[in-house]
Amino acid sequence: MGFLLTPREYIQNTLREAMEAYLKNNKIASSQAPRNDNIESKGNREQFGDFSSTVAFQLAPIVKKSPLEIAKEIVALIPLARNDSSSYIQKVEIAGNGFINFFLDEKIYRDSFREFSLKSLPIVMAGKESKVIIEFSSPNVAKPFHIGHLRNTVLGEFLSRLHEYTNHNVIRWNHLGDWGTQFGKLIVAYKKWGDEKKIDKNPITELLYLYVKFTNEAKKERESLAPLEKSRPEAAGAVPEAGRSLTGLEQQARDEFNKLEKGDAVNIELLKWFQKETIKEFSLLYKRLDSRFDVIKGESSYIAGKEKLFGLLSKKGFLEKSEGAKIVSLESEGMLPVLLEKSDGATLYHTRDLLSLQYRLEKYHPDRILYVVGDEQTLYLKQLFVVAKKIGLNAADLQHVSYGLVFGPGKKKLSTREGNVITANEIIKDVLFKASAVMHEKHPDAATRPPTKVTEDIALGAIKYNLLKESRQSDVVFDFDAMLSFQGNSGPYLQYTYARISKILSRAGIFASAKRDMLYGDRTDIAVMKKILEFSDVLDTCMQILSSHPLAEYLFSLANELNAFYEKNPILKDEDAKRRKQRLYMLRISADVLQQGLELLGIQAPKQI
Question: Which GO terms of type biological process are on file (predicted)?
């Protein structure tokens, strides 16, 4: 996928040619060659070379020889620089029982770096162009945007940017939770206690207040009914589904939701208003997070199509009835049945997700749909994908992009002093407050302190990087001091490194005027060049595993290399004008890569900190 011939790609091509020749010599069809040659960069472990491959182990069961014997025969087919002037390979060694280690001539890094530096960032990498729907964020209407939604949004935004950068047509999809019995409760609460002006002014807070008030009032009714239910045991069986009778408020909520299901005009308008007010408030947060969507669509918009879906299921023989409810049996797949409609006619999440999928396929014709959803929904989505395949909704590749939980220090639950789940806005407010304190300590003199926006960039960078630096399947811990450190594996450290390079380049007078076609000699720092040339390979890895942590790890490693390089080579003091010019130019390219990487993570790169 790379946009130029990187050292890794050079090794991959060379090894592939040698492997094909080896298979031909052994009268084995090239179609049996391993698809993955498992090229691994050896980083700073110079004794093992620049790259290593385990291809001999993959070929062993095909060729019926030992990996060591295969490795020796493949190595004999690889051209070396001393025998072939077009080769960049100094030597190839076999380690252990068949590992093939490649040692490259430094010239390949200079040549590749020269080609890389002549490109203009951002470079749109040449990938297979396809249409991808990425569903992410997906908060609930009338409820706070919590820390889990924040991780989801930051991850989904990264995946969207990555796919756009690699030449895919991306449709960013926000699937709002705006249907279910809770909206019957909210409608009752609004009709009894709601204030339109208060909701218009502070939507989420007021709607949540109404929902909590309903819950508390219903609880009081329940408690008042408890003595009666004890004296009349038969009352507990009045509603088998709940195991107990409904209170007056609970019955009203059920009635209001049933009216919603049947298309009651008043309740539909109320729901649309709740949705509109919620989106209005969430839009402010999305703008702050620099996250955008092409489609924002609630579950409620698909309800009208349920009979058509049930007709399709019935026609294919998959829709069954069980105690008045409509289900799809997945017994043959070893899964529990999928409930699509309750006995009272109420739809469930699977119903609405199938309708949403049907709509997406018919209207947008995507090649792939990524569902960015937490680990806890793994079984749910497996069931969804199986049912979708059964009924022919399989024109696109469906993939669950799962992620772990978010905790506070000591892996404790993040919550407010009152014990409530902490919201995204509260997290941002706390981190921004701490970032302001850090900046005041760093710049006691207000005259030298960067603008307030820089402080917000640092706070948001700290949050985003902390959420993206871990493998998406791992849980994330919010350690606020570590997140805001300018010296550790943090967003502020990467931002500081970029600002430091920008300052050096600005002082040298080339930041805005450097030309990418300038020539430079051989004396450059190979370690930095190696690191810069890994950029496209790292993005390939991110695409393959749909995770941000390889890029975060890469940027942290690049920042370390750059800071170590400058400490060892104070460029501005270098009296050799040609070498100084070369190294400044290398810093310019490094700054471009660092900025591009941060942009993919959704992190701003201020030039002054």
Answer: arginyl-tRNA aminoacylation
Interstrand relation of 39-41 and 51-53 (parallel, antiparallel or unpaired): antiparallel
* 362, part of any domain: no
**Which residue reads 């049933």 in tokens?**
258
Question: Mean pLDDT in runs of 10 for the chain (609 residues)?
Answer: 68 92 89 77 76 93 93 95 87 94 91 79 59 98 94 99 94 97 96 95 94 93 71 46 69 93 94 96 97 97 93 94 94 95 90 98 97 97 97 95 91 67 91 93 81 94 98 94 94 97 88 45 72 92 96 97 91 86 89 96 96
- Rounded CA gap, 41 and 53, in Å? 9
Q: What are phi and psi of 235, to 5 degrees?
A: -65, -30
pLDDT on residue 234: 47
543 and 453 part of one domain: yes
Instruction: Please state whether beta strands 131-135 and 99-104 pair in parallel, antiparallel, or not at all (unpaired).
Output: unpaired
Phi/psi at 42 (5° precision): -90, 0
Model confidence pLDDT, tens digit, residues 164-177: 999 999 999 999 99
For residue 518, what pLDDT is reported? Answer: 44
Say whether 257 sits in a helix, a strand or coil.
helix
CA distance 489 to 559: 10
pLDDT of 241: 44
For residue 559, give the amino acid letter. A
Rounded distance between C-alpha atoms, residue 85 and residue 314, angstroms: 69
Residues spanned by the domain of 276: 180-290
Q: What is the CATH number of the domain that holds 13?
A: 3.30.1360.70
Q: Are residues 584 and 497 in the same domain?
A: yes
Query: Looking at the structure, do residues 62 and 195 belong to the same domain, yes or no?
Result: no
Phi, psi of 576, rounded to the nearest 5 degrees: -85, 105
The rounded Cα 4 to chain-centroid distance in angstroms is 26
| Residues sharing a CB contact under 8 Å with residue 417, sequence separation 6 or more, in sequence order | none
Residue with tokens 């009979």: 307
Q: What is the pTM assigned to this prediction?
A: 0.90
Distance of CA 283 to the CA centre of its chain: 20
Which two tokens mark 120? 């203009």
Q: Which residue has the tokens 């695409």?
A: 543
d(CA 401, CA 55): 29
437 and 581 housed in the same domain:
yes
- Write down the pLDDT at residue 201: 93
pLDDT at 244: 57
> Do you find a cis peptide bond into 570, omega within 30 degrees of 0?
no
The four Cα atoms 499, 501, 507, 510 give a dihedral, to 10 degrees, of -120
**The CA-based dihedral angle spanning residues 14, 19, 25, 26, taken in that order and rounded to the nearest 10 degrees:** 170
Cross-sheet strand order for the sheet of 319-322: 319-322, 325-328, 338-341
Say whether 418 sits in a helix, a strand or coil: coil
Buried b (16+ CB within 10 A) or exposed e, 133-171: bbbbbbbbbbbbbbbbbbbbbbbbbbbbbbbbbbebebb
Contact 191, 564 (CB under 8 A): no
pLDDT, position 44: 63
Q: Which of 270, 290, 310 is the last residue of a domain?
A: 290
pLDDT recorded at residue 231: 54
